[in-house]
Every structure is written in C-alpha cells, then in structure tokens.
Amino acid sequence: MPSRPRIRRRGQGVTTFVVGFAAGAALMVGAQSFLDANEDPDLAHYRQVRDFVSSSFVRDVDPDELLMSALKGMVGELDPYSRYYDQVESQEVERETRGSFVGIGAVFKGDLSKGRILFPLPGSPAEAAGLRVGDRILSIDDAAIEGWDRAQVQDALQGELGSLVTLQVVGLDGEHRAVEIRRGSVVDPNVRHARILDETQGVGYLAILGFSHETPDEFDAAFTHLREQGMRSLVIDLRGNPGGVLKAAIEIARRFVPDGLIVSTEGRGTPVPYYAERAEAWYQGFPLVVLVDEGSASASEVLAGALQDHRAAVLVGAPTHGKGVVQTIRHYDDRKTIAKVTTSYFYTPAHRNLQRDPKSGRDYGIAPDLEVPINDAERAAIMAHTWHFSTPLDSVRALRDWERELGEPLIDPHPVDAQLDAAVQLLTGELQVASDGQD
Fold first, then answer.
1. What are phi and psi of 229, to 5 degrees?
2. Residue ranges of the alpha helices (H) in 268-417?
3. What's the pLDDT score for residue 98?
4. pLDDT confidence of residue 273
5. Residues 171 and 205 grouped into a single domain
6. Strand, helix or coil at 309?
7. DSSP 324
8. Which of 187, 213, 244 is the last residue of a domain?
9. CA of 43: how far to CAs of 48, 63, 151, 233, 437, in Å?
10. Does one domain contain both 200 and 338?
11. Can you tell me the distance from the alpha carbon of 334 to that of 419, in angstroms, rounded to the nearest whole number?
12. Which of 309, 369, 417, 439 is the catalytic position?
C-alpha cells in the first residue's frame, strides 16, 4: 500500500513532463513559424543566397566570411567613403583616430628586422630607458632576432601597456648593454618636420599629416617651439593630408580665427554649425600660408577652407581633393568591428560645398589663392620626405656623426619644392598675391 501512491506520483510526473514537452515543442514550432512568416524579406533572401553559396561553392566557406563579405559590400557600395572594417582594420582605424599606440616608441633605420635604431621618439619609453641613435637590437627578452622577419620583431616589441621588455643591444661605440623598457602609450606624431626655414625672416614650417585627437596638442607644442626659435610667420603643409578627426581640424582653425563660423555640416537632419572661440584664438593675426594639393581631403579641407574664407591664411599649391563629407563611425563591440557611413556634407563659412562635383565641372574641393604647378616626380619626392618621421633636435648631432661614419645620408633634406618656395616668398614679401577666396 505505501508504494502505490509513490508509483502514481511518478507516473503523474512523467505524464506531466511528456505533455509539457509536447506543448513546448508545439509552442516552439508555432513560434518559429511565426518568426519565419514575419521575417524581413531582405534577411530571408540573404539566408537563401548564403545557404546556396554554402552548399554549392567549390570549397567550404566559413559562415563568418560570408557575413563579413556581405557587410563590407552593403556599406562599401553606398559611396566611395563608407566602409565596414573587420577586426584587424578596426584596430588600425582606432590607432589613427586615437593618435597613439602602445609600444616603445623607436624609429628604425631601413628594415625593422635588422633591428637598427635610427632614433627614439621624443618623450617615448625608448628615450626614457636610454635607447640611443644607432643601437642595434640583438635580442628581445632573451630571444635572438637574427633571422626574424619584420612582423616577428614588431610583435615582440608590442605588448600590454605597462609591461616590461628587455633588449640586448650594441651601440655605435661597440658597447653591449641591456635596456629594460616599460611599454607605454606613444603618440604617433601627425605634426612633423617643425623647423625654421629662413632664420633672417623668421619663417617657420610644419607639416600636418592627418588629424587625430592628439593633433591640436602636437600643433601647439610645435608652434611654441618654433616661436622660441624666433618664428615670426608660418607655413602649414597640408599636402597629402587625407583628413581624420573633424574636431581636431576645428580646434586648429580656432587658433587663428577669433569670430564667426568655422564649418557647418548639413545632411538629412538639422545642420550643425561649429563656431570660432575667441578665447582659443591664441595666434590671431599671425602671418600664415597653407600648402594644399590634390591629396588634401576632408578635415584638412575644412581647416584650409575656414582659414581662406576668414582671410586668415593664403592657400598655395594645387586644388584640393574635394572630399566634403562627414562620416559617422559606429562600433560593434561584440565583434570588435566598425562601420563608417557618410551622414552629411561640409560647408565652409562662405557656404561653399567642399564635395567635388565633376558633373558641374568642378572636380576638386578648394582652389588655392596661388596655384603653383609641380610634376609627378617632384610631388612623389615631397610626399616621401613629409611622411618620414622628422628628426628630433636632440638626435641631430648623433645622426650627423653616424652619417660621416656610414658615408650615406640619414637626415634627408627637403627636396626641390616650388610650392614651398612660393610660400616662403609670400611671407618674406618677395611675392604678392590677392587672396579672394574664390574657387
């Protein structure tokens, strides 16, 4: 007798489970049918094509590969500027936008795999640890680098912020020593080659390669340094500058423009204006020439256009690229990817649309006030020089000594540059041009 109720309860439990399972299964089937019936037709078609490719293509294809291709195609076909970045590409975008990276901060002579240091970057962990001009790396964390390729050396030098790496090096004097470096955040300099071109007239020069969050501070530091050396006028080189962080370009424009509009962005939503800030116009009235060319695009055109419209600078060189679009970036943290989509257009203070429009006969963005032609070979040489890391002043003497030992140049001089020559002549009064801001 006592066992019967237990048997009955067990049977009831099993019956309940079976009935519950059947009801749950029916609910799942019903839910799936509901979802299938209400699925977005576009997504349903994507699944159809994906399944066809997966089952019929000549080799097995990773589903993630198909998804990545679909996303890149969807965004990339919108216009020449919108793009979907995979994980590796997203890391590079982050570095360019941030303007810094984790590492030791050393510039190498020639192939990185040779391990020969040209110079440490100013303020870098490498400089703080005592790495010198001409040091040759023999081993990294007790692993000899002989036979390594560039990627292996780079991977070994990179690591977590604050981590230690020990290099065995031999200096130009033949001394072997161990250098322990704590990896840190290193500014990837966008402002380069700051120097005085004409000491008598006090003409300064600097190049801005792109705009990151660090660029305004880099610019201010270079400007202060040049002023301390006697600078009384400045050439800003934006040639080959593809743009970058809009806010950085606006901040630099505000250094020279005390009042009025810097730029506005106009698209599907309400226009967004960005105005000058009088309290930030530290260099108002400073004599200024800006070099531009067909490689000057986006944020560099914003800076050039604002300075031209406000008569704060004379533009010299060639017409700019004409990439007058604002792009919005969205991060997808679960996949560590980024999508960048065009969302609006730039307009200068005079309400000039910076976007090139070949249909209307304008296949450029901004026309310079003074156009100075150069040939392709000259431009290539100028760009190669500009994109090199500029030599820190503290390293010049050591590099000159090393040059004499090697019998080859280590500090490349500025190549023949008619556009830069014209800029200097404007600032020294040898050349005159009317800046009418017309394009």
1. -90, 5
2. 299-309, 376-387, 396-406
3. 62
4. 96
5. no
6. helix
7. -
8. 187
9. 9, 15, 40, 59, 50
10. yes
11. 48
12. 309
195: its two tokens: 């120097």
Other Cβ atoms within 10 Å of 263 Cβ, number: 26
The verdict on whether 309 is a catalytic residue reads: yes
Domain residue limits at 202: 191-374+417-428
* Structure letter (DSSP) for residue 392: P
| 183 and 220 together in one domain | no
146 found inside a domain: yes
94 occurs within a structural domain: no
Selecting among 90, 298, 300, 344, the annotated active-site residue is 298
Q: For the chain, give the longest Cα–Cα distance.
A: 119
pLDDT along the chain (439 residues), means of 10: 40 39 44 55 80 82 80 72 72 63 88 90 93 96 93 90 95 95 89 94 97 94 95 98 94 98 90 96 98 96 98 98 82 80 88 87 92 97 93 87 91 92 96 62
Contact call for residues 102 and 185 (beta carbons, < 8 A) = yes
In the annotation, is 198 catalytic? no
Are 132 and 155 within one domain? yes
Residue ending a domain, among 126, 159, 187, is 187
Active-site annotation holder among 135, 212, 323, 340: 323
Burial of 14 (0-12, 13-18, 19+ CB in 10 A): exposed
- The amino acid present at 109, given as its one-letter code, is K
Q: How far is CA 379 from CA 228, 293, 298, 414, in A?
A: 31, 10, 20, 12
Residue 3 located in a structural domain: no
Q: What total of structural domains would you count in the chain?
A: 2
| H-run or E-run covering 36 | helix 3-38
Cα distance between residue 7 and residue 42, in whole Å: 54
- Contact (Cβ atoms closer than 8 angstroms) between residue 342 and residue 325: yes
Do residue 242 and residue 322 come from a single domain?
A: yes
Does one domain contain both 181 and 241?
A: no
Partners of residue 186 on adjacent β-strands: 101
Assess contact for 231 and 199: CB atoms under 8 A: no
For residue 153, count other CB atoms closer than 10 A to its CB.
19
Task: Find the CATH number of the domain harbouring 278.
Answer: 3.90.226.10
Q: In terms of domains, do 107 and 149 share one?
A: yes
pLDDT for residue 230: 96
Q: Give the Cα-Cα-Cα angle 164, 166, 169 (nearest 5 degrees).
A: 150
**Residue 296 designated active-site:** no
Same domain, 220 and 363: yes
146: domain CATH number is 2.30.42.10
In the prediction, which pLDDT does 39 show?
A: 66
Residue 268 lies in a domain: yes
